[in-house]
Structures are given as structure tokens and as C-alpha cells.
């Protein structure tokens, strides 16, 4: 067995290529080596090689593993042409755009509807403790009258006049390679092989009923801005009786007046007086989980930080609380009585020569 070629060499790109460049290279080579039209030697094997390279390099996770471990990253597993790195197309779509049709797309199969996303703004407290919120969504359910058939009754069907019940038709188109014939899904019956002669009056032939509903959303404790949750089945309606897509709720957490969030930890600035800083004190500090007592040692300086363990925000996955960091702010009084002024004059005579900062500063002045 011959050794596998480097995937970047297969697509003719360098390792710094972005997604559009990878996609463009793949489309060019898929057109060149497609076995149905290519005159190149070993076109089929080259086409498979291109598909395999594209499947890996178009997926950021697979690409990262490949860049680190080479072909060993996939343990020799084959490739899958059913999905290409999140792009909404497949090889038949590409072939169709080049050659006027390609293989039948089987659009009559049941397909899940597209997902949706909505933003939800919540308070800081809701993010800390979790909450229950109501939102209005649109549900897409099987029509209760026709049970999803779209017809007024079971007898209101006939064989498709276009495809004669086959579900596919042959179309001819002029392409880069001359006149081509291709098989595609019947545009009249959408591949079902049958036409509805009289539509259901409830759903107008769609087989689906849509109605609004208030749904309860459980906000997880610890959720943060930019994180989301999934509500299964509340997205766009499916195709041909397929299930509905999902609804993703993306959260925006409002800022708090005093708390500042840093991951699972929070920071709060707490003011104290000169007397409390100099003499020490025991003060009350607010936390999301209730007030706690904090001992302030004598001689505490402004900007000193104390940590209150497990008084922060619960991690949305582990449920363990972060910490609260208390930043002390020593407040300078702006208005003083005569008696207070005399007291501060006396304090101004305090010998601070042993303080390291004062000692360093005086030494600097003498230079």
C-alpha cells in the first residue's frame, strides 16, 4: 500500500490557509477529478483522496489533531463524505453546480429543521443562583387533521404528473463539458412521487401546524455572558415530517452595582475609615450568600485584598463556588469639625520613620 500524501499537498495549499481557501481548493479539485466526467488517470482514487483531505482540513478539531500527529491522528480511519467541516454543502451539491444536476438529492427524506438562537438578558443574582424564566416560542407539530399527510383525505392524492411516481426527473443542461444529462429530485412533488389534489384546510397542505407557546427556561446557576443552553425541539420546523430544530438561548448577564465578576470569582471594594485602618476593626462585608464578618488588622493599608473562600459564583459545570476578593479602600474625610481637625493635627506628629515606605522616600529626598 502506498504511503498517504500530506493533506495540504493533496489540496495544493499551505498550512496557513484559511477556511475559504480550503473550500475553494476542494471545489476546484472535485470538479477536476469527479469520476463521471474526468479524463484524468486514476480519477476515482484521486477524487477520494481529495475528499479525505478536505474532510480533515475543513474541520478545525480534526485539522488541529492532524497538524500535531499527522495521519496517525485518525488511527487509519476512513473518511465520511456526509459532512464537511460544518459547511452546508456536500459533494453532490458541488457536482450539481458544475455539471447541471449530479446524483438525486433525496429531498423527500425527513430532515431536521434548522436551529435557532435567541438572546436573554438576566440579572447578576439570576446568574449566581439560577432562575426560571418564561419565553414565548413557536411550536411546529404534526397537523392533527391530516396527521402530517397534507391532504384533505387519504384519497386526495394522485401520481405525480411530472415524474410519474418515480420522485426523480432527468434534466439536460449545457455545461463546461457540453450537453449533460443528470437525475435530480422532481420539482413538482419534491421527490414524494405523489401530488395532493385537495389540500388539508387546517395546514394548507404542509402537514404541520404552528402555534405559540410559553416555555419555561431553567437558567443554570453560574451561567455567564456568552454561554448558552439548548432547548430541544423549539427551533425551525423540519422538512417532510422531520423533527424541529433546537433553540439555543444565549445569555447576557447585567453588571452589578458593587460586584465585579472574574470567572467564578467576584471582587468588591469595601470602604473603611482612617481609624478602622489604623486601629483595626471587625466589619460586615456583603456577599451574594449573605453578610459575613471580616477582621481588619491594625495598620491595614488601602488596596489591601482579603479573600473570602467559596463566597463567589458557582461553576456552571462543577457547581463549586469561586471566591470573593475584598479590596479595602481607606477613605479620606473631606469635612472635619474643629475637634476632629485638632485630633488629626496631633496624628500628623506621629513618628512614621520606621515605616518602610516613609524611610525609602526620605532617603530619596536627600539625594
Walk me through what this model shows.
The chain has three domains: 7-99, Orthogonal Bundle (Helix Hairpins); 116-253, Urease metallochaperone UreE, N-terminal domain (HSP40/DNAj peptide-binding domain, Sandwich); 260-338, Urease metallochaperone UreE, N-terminal domain (HSP40/DNAj peptide-binding domain), CATH 2.60.260.20. Helix 2 packs antiparallel against helix 3 (43-57). With 367 residues, it is an alpha+beta fold. The chain has a four-stranded mixed sheet. A three-stranded mixed sheet has the order 1-9-8. The protein is 24% helix and 26% strand.
Any chance you could write out the topology, listing elements then pairs?
Elements: H1 7-11, H2 19-33, H3 43-57, H4 60-69, H5 91-99, E1 116-122, H6 124-129, E2 131-142, E3 157-159, E4 168-175, E5 178-185, E6 194-196, E7 208-219, E8 228-231, E9 247-253, E10 260-262, E11 265-272, H7 274-279, E12 281-285, E13 292-296, E14 305-308, E15 324-330, H8 338-348, H9 356-365
Parallel strand pairs: 1-9, 11-15
Antiparallel strand pairs: 2-7, 3-6, 4-5, 8-9, 10-11, 12-13, 14-15
Helix pairs in contact: 2-3
